Amino acid sequence: MKERDHEAGGILLGRRIVDSENVIVDQVGEPSSSDVQARFRFMRSKLPAQRLVDEAWASSNGTLNYLGEWHSHPEDHPIPSTVDLENWRQIALRVVFEHDFLVFIIIGRVSVRAWEVERQHVAIRQLVLISV
Which Gene Ontology terms cover its molecular function (predicted)? Predict the structure, then answer.
């Protein structure tokens, strides 16, 4: 992310590893033309994202699921804002999803950080990212 870039974001699609709490992100959605992107704000449009989820589910015979969301922050080491935290809680309460948790990733200028939001308690905890 460059100095003056707008925030961006999208959804995460993938699968949970059987008999584990680990997930694999297979597909990362890109911003749509109807998303709101500004220097310090990103608001995802629901309809294009839902279309992407529905298409992935259908084309994968029900193996690709909605795992969560990602967005960028114009800071080196991203920290979720109060708006981010409330949005994540609302998503965990409203959205239909297969697992007991959702993953939210924020991409900073230097590091990438992830958080897990539990369905039942809407508890939020930071995760350690493993990439291959």
Answer: metal ion binding; metallopeptidase activity
